[in-house]
Amino acid sequence: MPTNPIPSASIVTWQEALIQAVRDPSELLELLELPKSLLPQAQAADRLFELKVPRSFIKRMKKGDVNDPLLRQVLPLGHELIETDGFSHDPLAEAQSNHTKGMVHKYQGRVLLVVAPNCAVNCRYCFRRHFPYQDNNPSRQQWQAVFEQIASDSSIAEVIFSGGDPLASPDRQLQWMVEQLAQIPHLKRLRVHTRLPIVIPQRITESTLQWLTGSRLKPVMVIHSNHANELNGEVASALAQLQEHKVMLLNQAVLLKGVNDKLETQIALSERLFELDVLPYYLHLLDKVQGTAHFDLAEREALALHQQMQANLPGFLVPKLVREEAGESQKTLIW
Ligand SMILES: *Cc1c(COP(=O)(O)O)cnc(C)c1O
Ligand code: SF4
Predict the structure, then answer these.
(1) What pTM did the predictor assign?
(2) CB of 152 closer than 8 Å to CB of 186
(3) 119 alpha carbon to ligand 2 midpoint, in Å?
(4) Angle formed by the axes of helices 140-151 and 171-182, to 10°?
(5) Pocket test for ligand 2, best of 123, 131, 254 (most atoms within 8 A of CB)
(6) Could you state, in order of their start, the residue ranges of all structural domains in the chain?
(7) Above pLDDT 90, what percent of the chain?
(8) Which residue in 302, 293, 298, 300 sits closest to 320, CA to CA?
(9) Residue 215 in 3-state DSSP?
(10) HSE-CB of 32 using CA atoms within 13 angstroms
(11) Staple 191 to which of 10, 55, 98, 220, CB 3.0 to 4.6 Å?
(12) Residues 6+ apart with CB under 8 A from 167
């Protein structure tokens, strides 16, 4: 079966790249010249959480290598069908702190807004693979209620755009939200957590920079990159634009067995991030979500890896090793 040619990134808008993402496991296997024997399990896991991966991200993978660290993050596997003790469907009990539609206020001084219900890529390890997004797509009026609640609580200094992936939303919606938020006097910072500049770097446009850097709120972007191979020239240019507009850039990674659990891999990621003027912020232990146990690294192994990172990298290139725990009012540092 012939597959569509991969269009060059320069002529594809981010919206087109989003629509053209590969969603068919057999197409992904064909593009990467992988054995068809992987198909039945890929299809079975795809039914639990659909495959979705932009073509520009696929281009960074090595053909014929089922263990490619970028592929591992997106390829549905039979392992996901295994139910494992100690892994749940809502490990962070977010269902409980999700009182106002669209808003999660769990941490002192910061509120997280679920800006977009979807992502540009479906990561197999995602802690939100079972999250009730459909119930969480607020209308304009519901956003007004969120803004009023933020306005009434002067302890809140920072708004975090999260998701899903907030950059899956159109710039005009984001522009509107930032305009409303900038009117709340006690807000200082706007933080955006996103994987879109990694998987579809052309997402960063003039109109993105406009809402992100055009208000009085100081912008911070936390990109989510797990491996240095993700950070190609196109990503570098997108990040350079943000940098030029004084957006502070940080990175958050998830520690994943078979993807980035080797010392060399973590060193390469930190070094590449530094080249691109991004500082490593967090290295998250996996949230124990059903279907992700094959990515899990024992806490003592994670700690040993982190200690080796400390021995081999300057302190500012060592991300904090953390875990999120239900009901805690901050991320838990692992020692
Ligand atoms: C991670 C997180 C934050 C931000 O925490 P930082 O330690 O400031 O990065 C805020 N709210 C929620 C619900 C979070 O999960
Ligand atoms: S981009 Fe983030 S929220 Fe979206 S699927 Fe991947 S890990 Fe989950």
Answers:
(1) 0.94
(2) no
(3) 6
(4) 30
(5) 123
(6) 8-81, 94-333
(7) 84
(8) 302
(9) coil
(10) 31
(11) 220
(12) 116, 120, 174, 192, 194, 196, 197, 203, 208
